[in-house]
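Revision sheet: structure tokens.
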Amino acid sequence: MVEGPGNKLKGEKMKGKIIGQTVKSISGNAIDNRPKRDLDKPTPYHNMIENKITDVKTLGKELFMFLSSGECLRVHFLMAGFVRYNGASEDPDESAKKKLPENPRLQLNLTKDVVSLYQCSVEMRDGTETLVRWEKNIDLDICWKHFNHERATKEIMDPRNSERLICDVILDQEILPGVGNIIKNEALFDAGINPLTKVKDLTQSHVTKLVKMNRDFSMIFYDCRKTGKPLYKYYKIYRFSKCKQCEGRVTKCKPGEYERGTYFCEKCQDNSLKTGPCKNSLIGWATGVASSTWKCEACTFENKPGSVSCFACGSSKAKRKSTESPGTSQAKVAKLGSNVALSAKKTASENVLSERKNDNVAVKKGQEEMCKGHKKACVIKTVSKAGENKGRLFYSCPLTRGKSCDHFSWADLSHPKCKHNCVTLKREVYKQNQNNGRSFYICPKMPKAKQCDFF
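Predicted:
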């Protein structure tokens, strides 16, 4: 899912590139994929033609393109949406594959540029109503420069949420726009809060800390997406099987309203307000070394001692109060960069690479697969494209998009074969029972009705 930080970057780039241009023509799947009887009829998107783009705004995971006609185009980038300008591949959310993507969902031919929106949902809305909604909720946007910490805390603790699980409430885009599943899991771990806790069982201190952890990790997320740094090096719980703090077993489940993958350590996330990351963590390293961060009065963000302005909202350090907030925050760590001890970096990175599974950072144990272009240890990825190989694991170059070589080899050839003589898919138990977290193999055939009973 393209979370708030990634969407914010898309909006910033789009705003600086296309405002003031006029839509000359449109095309894409949103126009072409209609019943034949409707192909000669105009769509709502045709109302954009000959109208000028007056503004671009973002709210959480939504992007709004305002037009001089009074309408606006609402874009949601779903799981892996991205934007191309004039056909160039520049979006960090675009796959590293060298193949050209499928037809865009919607393509706008403007006065100077061509904007292509891929793998997203689009919808025309009333511009005035959208702007009112934006103004009402923007200070709850987890990436907004004037994020309202106090209001976010009150929204979470509202009586209407008392019976909801906290992991569902912080994913609610009407409460904390921009928070996605990665941010949710990392923030809950950093706050030491069990995600299966109901809001009514948390104090204001719990919620205040949790809101701050969501904000801080979102700033790390934003910084990594903007600079191209790997985000996974800051993961401490997301998709891990073993806790980085206590080395205990991580519980994996899909609870609540949204049934999103949730990962937590029962020992470290005990709601005591005393737990939090320290072992093999850059947060822990910074906590033990630095204690002179300063808190921005405008957005409550904690900044590095040497920063003259707030990283989140740009407010001047001179405007802050004389008393400094003790401790540090995750955003501080995100900007430490080369100042962090090399040993701490190496330890955290090695632990991440050895534990991650079925994601972009899992390395084959025992004998490493090396990419042919750089002779670096490969990462394991999962085939997401629909087809007979969907769900299979493969080795790929570990470097970021644009720098990676075209290395490819299957990483699941050691898996047993099912009764169809096909390589099986590896899965994990997410039910909360004695088998939680265990791996198993299943038939890869789709749909499920075609699968054999291999287990």
